[in-house]
Specification:
646 residues, alpha+beta, 5-stranded mixed sheet, 4-stranded antiparallel sheet, 10% strand, elongated
C-alpha cells in the first residue's frame, strides 16, 4: 500500500515537472503558462500529492489520502498535457499526437472536481461516511462523475485550440445536451451541499478531536470560498487566485495527522468574525449609499457615519455568537452555571453527567472529578495539558475538578478560569452530597448485614440450644407419663430431670432476650440498671444524670447501657481502683462519660473487641466514642445523637 502511495506521488510530481518544463521549452511566458493553467494545476497537483502521500503513509486505511493522490494525478495531468501541447505546437508534432495530448489534458482535471472532491467531503475525516445510511451517496457520486467529465472535457469552449488550429476530442451535439449538463451542474452542487450537511452533522455528534479536525477544514474552505467567490462569480482577479486551492489539502493533512497543532478554535473564531463583519460592512455601505444617494442626502458620508457608529455593537454581538459556537458559554458564566444547574437537578446522570455537561458547555476535550485520589467520573480523552480546580465545601477540600486544555492552548484563559471557579461551588456541593449518599448507603448495608448476623445468631441459638432442650423435655414428659403408673420412682426421677431442663431452657430464653434488650432497662430504667450492673462487678459507681431519662429513644438507651457496661467491665478487669464516675448529660445529644482514677495515664490503650464494640454502637447511631488514658486514669466518652433515632 505504501509503495502504491509513492508511485502515485511520483506520477503526479512527474506530470507537474514535465508540464512546467514543456512550457519553458515552448518559450511560453509566465502569463501564457498561467493562462494555460500550467502553473496553477502544477502547484495544485504537487500540493495534493504531498498531502495525499503523507496521509496514505501514516493512515493507509483512511480513504482520504488515496483520494487526494488520485486528485493530484488528474490535476497535474492537465498541466502535463498543456505543457506537451505547447511543445508540440512549436515543434510541429503530428496532429493526431497533439489532439491526443490536449484531449488528455481536457479530460483529466474534471475527475478531481466531479469525483475526488465530493468523496473527500463525504468521507472526511476518518475515511467513512457519516453513517451506513450515507453509503448510497458515495455510490451515486462514483456513478455520476463521468457526466461532469464529459461536460467539461468535450466542451468546445474548454482549453481552446493551438496556433495551428488543432483542437481536442469533442462532439458536435455537445450544446444540444444542455439539459443534461444543467442536471450535472445541479448534481455537483447538491452533492457538495449534502456533504457539508454531513460535516455539520459530524460536528454536532462528534467529540473534541473530530470537531477540531472539522474546524481545520472549515477554515480552509472559508478562505477558499472568499477567493473563488471573487474569481469565479464576479470574474475578477487573475488565474493565480486559484493557488488558494492548496489550502484545502494542507488543512486536511493537518486535521488528520496534527489536529492539535494550534488553537484552531481561536483562529476560526476570528476568521468567521471578520469575514462576517467585512461582508456586513460592504453590504450595508452599498445599500446605504444607494438608498441615501437616491434621496439626495449625500449617501457616502451618511453611510460612513452610520457604519462607524454601528460597527462596534455589531462586532461585539457577532463575537459572542461565534465564541459561543466554538467555546461554549464561557463568555456567559451565568448561562453556563444555569445549564450545569439543570444537570444537578436531574439525579439520573450523576457525576458522570455533570462532567459531560462541563465538556459540552465549555467545549472542553476532557473533564474529570476526583476525590481522595480516586477518579469519580470523567468524560473525553485527557490531553497533555491539564488544569486543576479545587472543590471546597465549608472549608474542607472535598475533591478537585480536572479539565483538559483545548489543543493549541498553553494555559487556561481568564474567561475559562472565571467560569470554572464559579462552577466549582455547586460541584463541591454535588461531590459532598454524593459522598454523603455513599456513606448512607454503606451505613444501610452495614445495618442490613448486622441485622442478618443477629438473625443468624438467634436462629443458631434457638436451633442448637433451645430447640434440643425443648425436644428433650417432650420426650421425658412422654417417658414419665408412660411409667408413672407402673414405676412411680422412675417417673419422679424423670420429672426432676424434666424440671432441670425446663429451667435451663428458661435461662436460655432470658439470655436471648437480654441479648436483644437488657430487661433491667424496662424494669428499673437506665440509671438504676447501671447501678445494678456496678454492684455485680463490686464497683463503687457515682452516676450523675438528669432526673428523667425516660424520653430517650430505645436505641440510644441500649447503646448507652452497652457502652457504660463495657467500660465498667474494663475498669473491673484492668484498673487499679473500685471507684468509677458515670456522667450522663442530655442536650441535643446524649453525652456519656465513664472515668476512673485507677492508673497513671501512661501509654496508649490497645483496641480490643470491647473498644471496637463501643465505637461501633456509637457509630451505628451516627455518634462517636473515644476511649483512652488521661492524667488521672482512664476515660470513655461517647456522643449519641437523638434526632436520628427518634
Amino acid at each position: 500500500m505504501k509503495v502504491l502511495a509513492w508511485i502515485l506521488f511520483a506520477t503526479a510530481a512527474t506530470e507537474a515537472v514535465v508540464g512546467v518544463a514543456g512550457a519553458v521549452l515552448a518559450g511560453m511566458s509566465f502569463q501564457g503558462a498561467t493562462d494555460s493553467f500550467i502553473v496553477t494545476n502544477s502547484a495544485i497537483g504537487l500540493t495534493l500529492a504531498c498531502a495525499g502521500v503523507l496521509i496514505a503513509w501514516h493512515r493507509p486505511r483512511n480513504a482520504i489520502g488515496w483520494l487526494l493522490l488520485a486528485a493530484a494525478v488528474t490535476q497535474a495531468g492537465t498541466a502535463l498535457g498543456a505543457g506537451l501541447w505547447a511543445v508540440g505546437e512549436v515543434h510541429g508534432w503530428p496532429e493526431v499526437l497533439q489532439r491526443t495530448i490536449i484531449t488528455f489534458a481536457a479530460y483529466s482535471w474534471p475527475w478531481s472536481i466531479a469525483l475526488c472532491l465530493p468523496l473527500v467531503l463525504l468521507l472526511f475525516p476518518d475515511g467513512r461516511p457519516v453513517s451506513p445510511r450515507w453509503t448510497w451517496l458515495v455510490h451515486l457520486t462514483i456513478v455520476t462523475a463521468p457526466f461532469f467529465v464529459l461536460e467539461m472535457g468535450a466542451s468546445p469552449s474548454g482549453l481552446g485550440e493551438g496556433p495551428s488550429g488543432v483542437g481536442y476530442l469533442t462532439f458536435a451535439f455537445h450544446d444540444d445536451l444542455a439539459v443534461l449538463w444543467t442536471v450535472t451542474e445541479i448534481r455537483g452542487a447538491l452533492l457538495v451541499l449534502v456533504a457539508f450537511g454531513g460535516l455539520a452533522l459530524r460536528y454536532r455528534r462528534g467529540g473534541e478531536r473530530e470537531r477540531r479536525q472539522l474546524l481545520w477544514l472549515l477554515l480552509a474552505v472559508l478562505l477558499l470560498a472568499a477567493v473563488v467567490l471573487v474569481w469565479g462569480v464576479f470574474q475578477a482577479g487573475p488565474v493565480l487566485m486559484l493557488l488558494a486551492i492548496p489550502l484545502v489539502p494542507i488543512a486536511i493533512t493537518i486535521a488528520i495527522l496534527r489536529h492539535g497543532l494550534l488553537d484552531i478554535r481561536l483562529i476560526v473564531s476570528r476568521a468567521v468574525l471578520y469575514a462576517l463583519l467585512t461582508s456586513a460592512v460592504v453590504a450595508a455601505y452599498a445599500l446605504l449609499v444607494t438608498v441615501l444617494g437616491s434621496a439626495g442626502l449625500g449617501g457616502s458620508a451618511f453611510a460612513t457615519v452610520l457604519i462607524a457608529v454601528a460597527f462596534n455593537p455589531v462586532r461585539v454581538r457577532l463575537q459572542r455568537g461565534v465564541d459561543r459556537l466554538l467555546y461554549g458559554d464561557r463568555v456567559d458564566p451565568a448561562r453556563a452555571l444555569s445549564r450545569i444547574g439543570r444537570r444537578l437537578a436531574d439525579p439520573a446522570p450523576g457525576l458522570a453527567g455533570l462532567v459531560a455537561a462541563i465538556c459540552e458547555v465549555l467545549r472542553l476535550p476532557f473533564a474529570a472529578l476526583r476525590s481522595a485520589d480516586v477518579e469519580r467520573a470523567s468524560n473525553g480523552t485527557a490531553p497533555e495539558r491539564l488544569h486543576t480546580v479545587p472543590l471546597v465545601y465549608e472549608g474542607d477540600r472535598v475533591g478537585e475538578l480536572i479539565v483538559g486544555l483545548r489543543p493549541g492552548e498553553k494555559t487556561v484563559s481568564p474567561a475559562d478560569t472565571r467560569v470554572l471557579e464559579l462552577l466549582a461551588v455547586p460541584l463541591a456541593v454535588a461531590v459532598h452530597a454524593t459522598d454523603l449518599s455513599a456513606q448512607l448507603q454503606r451505613s444501610r448495608e452495614h445495618i442490613v448485614v448486622a441485622r442478618e448476623d443477629e438473625r443468624r445468631r438467634l436462629r443458631r441459638d434457638l436451633h442448637d440450644g433451645l430447640g434440643p432442650t425443648l425436644t428433650g423435655v417432650v420426650y421425658r414428659a412422654d417417658a414419665a407419663g408412660n411409667v408413672i403408673a407402673d414405676d412411680p420412682v422412675r417417673a419422679k426421677e424423670l420429672i426432676r430431670t424434666l424440671r432441670s431442663e425446663v429451667t435451663t431452657a428458661i435461662e436460655d430464653i432470658r439470655r436471648l432476650v437480654y441479648g436483644l434488650r437488657p430487661p433491667a432497662l424496662d424494669e428499673f430504667g437506665l440509671v438504676s440498671a447501671l447501678r445494678q450492673q456496678a454492684e455485680r462487678l463490686s464497683l463503687t459507681v457515682s452516676v450523675q444524670a438528669p432526673e428523667d431519662l425516660s424520653a430517650l429513644p430505645a436505641a440510644v438507651e441500649v447503646a448507652a447501657y452497652r457502652i457504660v457496661t463495657e467500660a465498667l467491665n474494663n475498669v473491673a478487669r484492668h484498673a487499679r481502683t473500685s471507684s468509677v464516675r458515670v456522667s450522663l448529660t442530655l442536650r441535643d445529644l446524649l453525652h456519656v462519660e465513664v472515668s476512673d482514677d485507677g492508673g497513671d495515664g501512661g501509654g496508649e490503650w490497645r483496641a480490643g473487641v470491647g473498644m471496637r464494640s463501643m465505637r461501633e454502637r456509637a457509630e451505628e447511631l451516627g455518634g462517636t466514642c473515644q476511649a483512652g488514658p488521661y492524667a488521672g486514669g482512664g476515660r470513655v466518652v461517647a456522643l449519641l445523637p437523638l434526632a436520628a433515632t427518634s
